[in-house]
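Table S2 (text version). Query chain:
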Amino acid sequence: YKSMTSELPKVHLIIATSLDGKVAGKFLFSKENTKPVGEYFKIYKEINPDAYSIGKTSLELYHSKGYKPDLTPFKDTKIDYTDNIATKPEYKMFNVVLDRKGVIAWKKAVTFESMEGFNGAHVIEVLTEKASKPFIAYLKSVGISYIFAGKEEIDLTLALKKLKKHFGIKKLAVCGGSGINGSFYNANLYDELDIIMSPIVGEKEGLPLFGGAKEFRLYKFEEVRQLEHGAIYLKYSKI
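Corresponding structure-token output:
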């Protein structure tokens, strides 16, 4: 299968799940699941994406740490809704942040993460015109790239086109949670599903693989592989 258009990066869903298809919940960070979910990072490294995208809740909890900048110095800044391409030649990895209203902030233009494969990524904020001008001006002052993909809702196809055109991104990994997984699913943008399944069942509060999925869709089976610690790797591609 070839991507729907050469204008778009190839989109992988690279995700760790429970046996019952949950992607979030207490089980994910339980001591029983530490080793099985560790197999996720081996598969992620094998696929080797040049950009990743994570849902808002996970970003604020584990990446931006809920950082809220002082926007007062930017309240009178004159700025328009024009893309800001602040990338540099040394940036080899990108953190694509879907931030419709402009609320996820960063202290620096490059992420510093303990998780292998996510460190040293240049932040690209995908915004709509719902984002405030002071927030946009703040991002620009820190050297963060941002692109606009819609007036009120994010147009994922437009965002992907811009990511490839402006940043040369060829392979994007969507890494959860449930909401962002479902958004890409509903837009039918996955070229490949890479699922690492742990031998554990999620609790009832756990969230499903594709939150808000609007229809069923068949994918082509490509591979199954037994991993260590009871985990299984399942690979499917778009038909």
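Notes on Table S2: The mean pLDDT is 92. The chain is about 20% helix and 25% strand.
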